[in-house]
Amino acid sequence: MFNTLTERLSSTFKNLRGKGRLTQADIDATAREIRRALLDADVAVPAVREFIAHVKERALGEEVSEALNPGQQVVKIVQNELEEILGGETRNIQLAKNPPTVIMLVGLQGAGKTTLAGKLSKHLKQQGHTPLLVAADLQRPNAVKQLEVNGERAGVPVFAPHPGVSSEHEDPTGDPVEVARAGLEEAKTRQHDIVIIDTAGRLGVDQELMQQASDIRAATNPDEVLFVIDAMIGQDAVATAQAFNEGVGFTGVVLSKMDGDARGGAALSVKYITGKPIMFASTGEGLDDFEVFHPDRMASRILD
Ligand code: GDP
């Protein structure tokens, strides 16, 4: 846990140990290093500002443990604060009282939604559920096929809008809202207890995308809307999260591409901006590269 930031701070404080309580001067001296560490981790500027104000308030007057110096003590407070913010509301998928539970995935194109759909369906299947994947991303030419491949690998059926798919419901048109609606009906008929709806993304946020996602949400009344965001997105995390939060609304966040070298600042930014819990992390292209989100690991990674 004592990492790069601690080393930096420790050199600021040399070997002072157990010198009573943290003072304003101690905290001010470390705030700059903390700010730099958070910005290096790509935490958005407003989130950094708010976070530091919080830590300053919390640290003032805190006792410095015998084993630590003031710099290490502040890092410990920062680590705890990060864990609390990232994990305050950590929770699992909320299941509907009357199945099927509907989970809708939203996010920019390339964020990792289709990949996540396969991973999440496998994860839920392993927990004894009987998910159905619904291919309502009709924007990207390959998305339906990609979901079918993922579904096959996960051993989970896929409801897709083209002939040849065995369905008791009529083959829906090319309208994603109709596909989502028909997929939900299919799940009810075939008694799947969970439906995962993959939706289209655009390269940038746009009105049409938001409207379509909103329409799908209205048509299927999901229990969870998961916002999938690429951890590498950096400072753009704020604008993107805000746009989806206002345009569609979501209940939880999935951080994808955590196997890359992003330090995960997007996690903190999104949590600060939207207050929504981070639920899962995607850590690779394979179906098993998927984790329930660990706030402590993320806090260490952000500070590293
Ligand atoms: P979508 O447009 O949101 O459905 O995004 P995709 O699921 O198609 O993912 C876009 C690209 O990112 C694909 O090449 C995926 O294989 C890749 N990808 C998705 N999730 C991850 C991840 O966690 N790690 C890595 N390294 N690649 C990922």
UniProtKB/TrEMBL annotation:
Residues 277-290 form the SRP54-type proteins GTP-binding domain. GO terms for molecular function: 7S RNA binding; GTP binding; GTPase activity. Keywords: Cytoplasm, GTP-binding, Hydrolase, Nucleotide-binding, Ribonucleoprotein, RNA-binding, Signal recognition particle. GO terms for cellular component: signal recognition particle. Its main location: cytoplasm. It catalyses: GTP + H2O = GDP + phosphate + H(+). GO terms for biological process: SRP-dependent cotranslational protein targeting to membrane. Its EC number is 3.6.5.4. It is found in: Cytoplasm. It comes from the Bacteria. GTP binds at residues 107-114, 198-202, 256-259. Composed of three domains: the N-terminal N domain, which is responsible for interactions with the ribosome, the central G domain, which binds GTP, and the C-terminal M domain, which binds the RNA and the signal sequence of the RNC. Involved in targeting and insertion of nascent membrane proteins into the cytoplasmic membrane. Binds to the hydrophobic signal sequence of the ribosome-nascent chain (RNC) as it emerges from the ribosomes. The SRP-RNC complex is then targeted to the cytoplasmic membrane where it interacts with the SRP receptor FtsY. Part of the signal recognition particle protein translocation system, which is composed of SRP and FtsY. Belongs to the GTP-binding SRP family. SRP54 subfamily. This is Signal recognition particle protein. The gene is ffh. The chain holds residues 1 to 304 of 529 of the full protein.
